[in-house]
């Protein structure tokens, strides 16, 4: 490479691409967008995000200690003799359910929509089973599993608690996934 051409190429008012590339750099802009500035911006954004979500975090922490149980009163146990049942709605008013006080004194509760075609399920006291009369589907009273007929899945289980002589529905469990 000859020296004359090399010198001309590095002069500031040259038309050479290499000189224009170097001259494109503005020292003020370069200082403004360096790594330190980026870290300051990232730290500032993190603090701002933390402050912005602080009310939600506090509410979540306070809510963790609240009693958010979903107790729904069904019936007084004294009003439900052994071998009888009562209908109720749980967890919403649209979800019909059945509480059975078995002959042995246990309490069993299930959503009473048949898992085959959603027909209502009834308690058969004589055989101690749950019956779907639409297609003669039978469910085991002890676990809600289908034992005969077209239903293939068990009834959703409703957990109950007895508090001061009153039966409450407290949770619903789907066991078949």
From TrEMBL:
Keywords: 2Fe-2S, Disulfide bond, Iron, Iron-sulfur, Metal-binding. Residues 72-169 form the Rieske domain. It holds the Pfam family Rieske. One of its GO terms (molecular function) is metal ion binding. SUPFAM superfamilies: ISP domain (SSF50022). Gene3D superfamilies: Rieske [2Fe-2S] iron-sulphur domain. This is Tat (Twin-arginine translocation) pathway signal sequence. It comes from Alteribacillus bidgolensis.
């Amino acid at each position: 490479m000859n020296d004359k051409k090399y010198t001309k190429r590095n002069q500031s008012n040259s038309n050479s691409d290499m000189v224009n590339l170097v001259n494109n750099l503005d020292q003020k802009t370069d200082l403004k967008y360096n790594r330190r500035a980026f870290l300051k911006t990232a730290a500032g954004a993190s603090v701002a995000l933390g402050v912005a979500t602080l009310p939600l975090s506090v509410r979540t922490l306070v809510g963790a200690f609240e009693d958010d149980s979903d107790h729904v009163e069904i019936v007084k146990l004294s009003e439900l003799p052994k071998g009888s049942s009562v209908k109720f709605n749980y967890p919403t008013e649209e979800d019909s359910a059945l509480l059975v006080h078995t002959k042995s004194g246990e309490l069993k509760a299930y959503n009473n929509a048949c898992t085959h075609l959603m027909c209502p399920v009834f308690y058969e006291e004589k055989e101690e089973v749950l019956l779907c009369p639409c297609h003669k589907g039978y469910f085991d009273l002890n676990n809600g599993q289908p034992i005969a007929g077209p239903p293939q899945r068990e009834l959703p289980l409703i957990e109950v608690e007895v508090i001061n002589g009153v039966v409450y529905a407290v949770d619903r469990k789907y066991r078949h996934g």
